[in-house]
Amino acid sequence: MLTVDFSRFPVRPGDRVLDLGCGAGRHAFEALRRGARVVALDTDEGELRQVSAMFAAMSEAGEVPRGASATAVAADATAMPFPDGCFDRVIAAEVLEHIPADQAAMNEIARVLRPGGAAAVTVPAWLPERICWRLSDDYHTVPGGHLRIFTRRELEAKLDLAGLSVGGHHHAHALHSPYWWLKCAVGVRNDDHPLARAYHRLLVWEIMKRPGIMRLADRALNPLIGKSVVVYAVKHAAAARGAGRGGVPGTGAAGAARPEEAHAAA
Questions:
Q1: Where residue 238 falls among pLDDT bands split at 50, 70, 90?
Q2: Domain 16-125+136-173+226-240, what fold?
Q3: What is the pLDDT of residue 239?
Q4: Separation CA 146–CA 43 (nearest Å)
């Protein structure tokens, strides 16, 4: 289930792509299928082991184009071990809401992007997220949970402060918002509730079968209740001289591993 629209965020063979806060790796896998040189970064080493295993399985299955490569790296989003300007694309999907120093993470995104490079940043959309918070404290107060609710304007302002020129945006996954409202109402951890199980089966069916009526419903509802908002941005010229207007000094010091060196060491 992809949140980033790759028709609006093209990844080409040979592109150096960072999936920041990769989680289970869904966007990293898609970038690898498109022939990119991918780095999947997260702090959860357990998930990174699974991502690495999937990279290997994709290679064995012949799903990795010639020249593409991938590696998983455990690191902090606010102090990444990469030199300045070393990626063509950065994806940060559903991660910034978890990071206390979110501006520092956005500064780092701008720092590691090359001039003219593009970022796709997704966070939970304001309205669906606000409803979840109202319905359940357990939804967001768990360790590692959501620390803030972004408005799109706040997210765009912080990206601009980091040195990224914001372009278009869209919403995604409208059909998932009622599922989370239901979960919050019956208990976030109550997966056995009949209504929660029934809605989950519906979502799995929609993801696997992609019926036309469901795609139309999702597209129509996305502007209203899309669970995620996706913002696209480009690193502008001013950011090329450091970390951007709101940036920290470049932390890509000599000796920091370049993505291709990380691939070779993997």
A1: low
A2: Rossmann fold (3.40.50)
A3: 52
A4: 16
Q: Residue 76 above 70 pLDDT?
A: yes
User: What is the average pLDDT score of the chain?
Assistant: 91
Pairing between strand 164-172 and 228-235? antiparallel
Res. 266 pLDDT band, cuts 50 70 90: very low
- Domain chopping of the chain, boundaries: 16-125+136-173+226-240
Amino acid identity, position 121? V
Count of C-beta atoms within a 10 Å radius of residue 147 = 13
Task: Tell me the DSSP string of 8-73.
Answer: TS---TT-EEEEET-TT-HHHHHHHHTT-EEEEEES-HHHHHHHHHHHHHHHHTT-SPTT-EEEEE
In 3D space, the residue among 9, 3, 31 whose CA is nearest the CA of residue 19 turns out to be: 31
CB 248 within 8 A of CB 161: no
Please count the other Cβ atoms lying within 10 Å of the Cβ belonging to residue 181: 19
Residue 233 reports pLDDT greater than 60: yes
Average pLDDT over residues 245-255: 35
Stated pTM of the model = 0.89
